[in-house]
Amino acid sequence: MTVELRSGDVDAFFAAPFNAYAPDVGYVSPLKGDVRRMLDARANPLWTAGNPFAFWTAHRAGRPVGRIIAHVHRQSNSAHGTARAQFGFFDCADDADAAAVLLGAAERFAREQGQADLVGNFNLTAMQQCGVMTGGYGARAYTDMVVNAAHVPRLLEANGFARFFPMRTFELDLAAARTEGLRTLEPGEGFSFAPVAKASFAERMEEARIVLNDGFADNPMFVPLTAAEFRFQAGEMMSILDPRLSSVLLKDGQPVGTVICIPDLNGLLAATGSRIGLTTPFHYLRYRLGRQRAVIIFYSVARAMHGQGVMGGMLARTVTSLRDAGYRQLGITWIADVNAASLRQMEKLGARPLHHLHLFRKELA
Question: What are the N-acetyltransferase domain coordinates in residue numbering (predicted)?
Answer without folding.
Answer: 243-350
